[in-house]
């Protein structure tokens, strides 16, 4: 029997970090929780727990926030895509977060363009969770923060070193000898960053849950990929599978793949074992292992499937 317990992370077993990023003390952002599910993630804190460290070619993480809690403006060197597991979320972007915005509901997905500062906040009435996919095994080498975020954090005791590590002056910590503060982006660098409007971003970067349900009526909907609903080549592909498009056939991949239910319970069978996944659970399937996923109960059922590709985990690819 093939035991995959160490490759399944249950929603109820997720270990949060409340000191993951530079805005952990900043009012309005100090109640957020960061989760690193697969890969090292981009946390700046040694307190961050990594659930599965096996390289996949991409990272899987999550952010959990109570109502009105905000994640500050930042950017990554590689792709960042989110789907909403629970709650109602407003995403905003631009130098000051005012260039554009979109509201996402449960099941919606947003493949955020690289090269722009982005942030998000829970605008629902309960604690909410969004799941993240980050390109590359090293997730692009960290986070780039808007200058005002670094300045605000310093006013509340957190200093980010040029080594990418956080130091909490409230705990008596200071920058080690030879380590300088993370430099602020220059006016010239900031001026080169695009400020796309909502109308420019939405068509090729946001997919709505019910649209994907309609498209996945016979075969899985290719959401992110060169020929996907959201055309991109960020080093991974994302498929959306429903009860109508789930296959009974056993299949395998030449690299690890990830299953993430968003609605309903899913039974996963493989050569030597079986399990049931619920929304919020994450399962890593080893390369070469034949498996299948099907809804295990009646009712609504939807699942995100992620697998790496040979494409470089670089900036968002724009179709010709």
Automatic annotation (TrEMBL):
SUPFAM superfamilies: RmlC-like cupins. Residues 67-130 form the Cupin type-2 domain. Signal peptide: none annotated. It holds the Pfam family Cupin_2. InterPro entries: Cupin_2, RmlC-like_jellyroll, RmlC_Cupin_sf. This is Cupin domain protein. The lineage of its organism: Bacteria, Pseudomonadati, Pseudomonadota, Alphaproteobacteria, Rhodobacterales.
